[in-house]
Specification:
The chain has 263 residues and is mainly alpha-helical. 67% of the residues lie in helices and 4% in strands.
Length: 263
Amino acid sequence: MFWVLLLLLAWAAAGTACTRLCLAAVHAAADDVDAGHGHDLTLYEAAFLSGGPRRVADLTLVSMARQRRLLLAHTGWATVVDPRGQDEIERSVIGAIGPEGQSRIAPVRDAAATAAPVRGLADRLVRAGLAVPDGARTTVAAAVRQVQIAVVVVLALGAIALLTPAPSDVPRHLIALWFALPLALTLSCLAIARIEVHPYSRWASPAGQRLLGALPRRAGSGDDRTYLTTVAVRGVSAVGEPDLRAAFADREQHWRAGHTRGA
């Protein structure tokens, strides 16, 4: 009976996908148990976990501008005031501006985001279990996609089985019922994963998200670190100074215009 072979294939697809999802969820939960305990996020780490490498570059630019060591004009240009960076990420920003000491903000941001110090920061966060590894973005998500594919496969095999002539002693509704079992398995796994499996952001793992949630960030606070924490988590939209916010707004307009011309 051809429909039995199709049923076995449906069970194989459903069973393999659901098993992979369960193993991935257990593995992710085991990795997350001790990650982040006793770890106090730096501003750079908070920026990376919230918005990735570009957020780190933005935070550095804002921090240096507030300390008057970098001038960010509302026209979208960055000018070095103090050429001595306080850390390697600041030095990468100064290096990206170039020997003339002045450059547009957009290329500075792009160069700083891809510089070795930011890549090193990303690697450390991944090793600490706070950031999602680049590229794979999470084994759980890949496993969920496989279960979703399995749902389609089971439906397709069931449809073929119903459309294929079967022995007269096997009712069509009984064949449909048999295929409904692997379909129910895959759908229930997806439902459980949606409820139970902690979602990953693009950059922060569940442990990283917990640490981000514990950060104090109140826009408008007089505490400079709290202000920069808000910028790290929310991005340049949290910048309070109108001129400084205009500098980043001009950067975004310049970036869009360049991509429009290149399209």
